[in-house]
Design a protein that fits this description.
about 15% strand; about 35% helix; 2 helices; alpha+beta
Length: about 80
């Protein structure tokens, strides 16, 4: 839910229980080939991943970040 909007529900057919022993290993195996980019930083903690672009000019930071987002989108579709 976001304000007055609801997304549709989806059935989850497979998952790894939180705090399981295999969870971190399975997450690492799944994301080990996630794309990187020389103009951005990739930060991962537990099951969270963030792409960071740093520049004094926000437009430049956004321009540097966008190719990484496109690469991630292709990777997720595969």
């Amino acid at each position: 839910r976001l304000k007055d909007k609801l997304s549709s529900t989806k059935k989850i057919s497979a998952a790894v229980p939180q705090e399981s022993i295999l969870g971190p290993l399975l997450y690492f195996n799944y994301t080990s080939d996630m794309p990187t980019n020389p103009n951005t930083y990739t930060s991962t903690y537990a099951d969270h991943t963030t792409f960071i672009s740093v520049n004094k000019d926000p437009q430049v930071a956004s321009t540097q970040l966008q190719p990484h987002i496109y690469d991630l989108e292709k990777w997720l579709e595969e």
